[in-house]
Amino acid sequence: MKSCIKISLRDIKSNWKLINKASHGKAAAVIKANAYGLGMLEIAGALLEAGCNYLYVANIDEAIQLRKKYNSKKISIAIFEGYFEGYQKFYNEYNLIPIINSLDQLIRLNDFAVEKRFPRAILNIDTGMNRLGLNQDEKSFLLKNKDLLKNIKLDFIMSHLANAQEEENENNLIQLKKFQIFSKNFPKIKLSFANTSGSVIIYISNGHGVWEATLVNLFEEGDKILLCCNGHFGHKWGKIAKKLKLKIEYLDVGFSETIDPGKIEAILKKDQKQEIKGVLTTYTDTSSSGKNNIKEFKNAINLANHSALLIIDCIASFGCERIEMDPWGIDVLITASQKGLMTPPGLGYCIISENVKENINNYKPSNKMISPYWDWQPRLNPERFYEIFSGTPPTNLLIGQLEALKMLDEEGRENVFLRHKILSGMVWACIEHLGSDGNTLELNIKKNKERSNAVTTVFSRGFDFTKTREWISEQGGVDLGIGLGFTSLELLGGKSVFRIGHMGHLNPHMILGVLSLLEAGLTMNKIPHRSGGVTAANNFMLKMIKQ
In terms of domains, do 317 and 288 share one? Predict the structure, then answer.
């Protein structure tokens, strides 16, 4: 009696799509050892049809066989066994990517790279599995001799987890920590403040411009969107959408709360016909200083089994808050140069995921809204340099932005996030102390985790803050933000609201200066408060530094 196994290529395609969607990035497929005996070429064909374009094989023979069958430049083929002497012509001829597992392999590839410039490679490091990858001594040597990589284009750095199937396994956590420590030494390799492999489109515009660009590239007249608002700027985005004749369903929670992902899920579940094409919101609304839990938004869409795109305005948060575009499943992220990116206004950015880029034609097959200037297509695939900017580039702003990015890169992504966490915490500590006597001063957002690390909105309840703001400006040269969108009588028509920005190129000394002026201004204008707010801010800073 013979046994047989039936392989369903349809199920393999379906499974890859599910894994790719769950990864919120771009999933690859390991088809080594003849796809573990299932038939490498057949399995590869199914995966490619499903959208997979990054394949791993065991050795160069498998790689050559695969490339001869599927010769598209869009397909990346990586080889686990790495780089060996005598393979040079094959890597070039068949466009193959070695996974570097040892220092010897790296040195050989670097020697080859001097002759054949900038070959692609993947760097594999051992973090505890003790199987493949650079060991501790080799990693230490590489960190002291980074020139070994200067002629090589690294796709990314990888490591094998010994217990990958057990997410919370202690060994996984230890390995991941080792990986993070090592990869910090290579900040330019597949690393960004957005944590994405998506494509960046640049406009000569402010944030309002990229609002419009996103809407006209993804939607048509009559399309329906779900706009989640927790402040003034969500509604302003909605006004642009109305002008473009989009249908809008609002999830409006006011100015003192943040968006509950469960409410998004509930709305999408009711949308049985899948009429809602996109879920839009601000990460931080600058008016309210409320920070939405974007990490859970894609999960809400998936739980509703809905196809809506997730589009996030990160103008006020980019460069200040942790943003994980690919891991969080964000389809389009928009931002601008003038806040956390520390550059004068004038540059707007649309960052689009690989999924949106690959399927962009599906979103607007007959779109009549889009104009040549806002169109993503020529900017994504320019035939000439001027098409990137639809004309003359803003050279002065680009030079300034490049310098700002260098500063952020030198500081390090995690250090930037920590610095803004310290700055925001200092402001909160000060305000909470000043307002603890009589509750005259009050933070708009009550929960720490829902407060922005970029800006803080404060009430001087029952007191017109206008004279205090003017005094601080005249005496100290510091301008505090006005309230936006607050119009209730209780808040004196918005006159009792002020905002403190703590985004961009700031340090604790600057924040202490601002808070000192605030406390002095309250005293001079006889607004009730408890003294010692600056001391409270300083104590918070010292506590964080000691940690």
Answer: yes
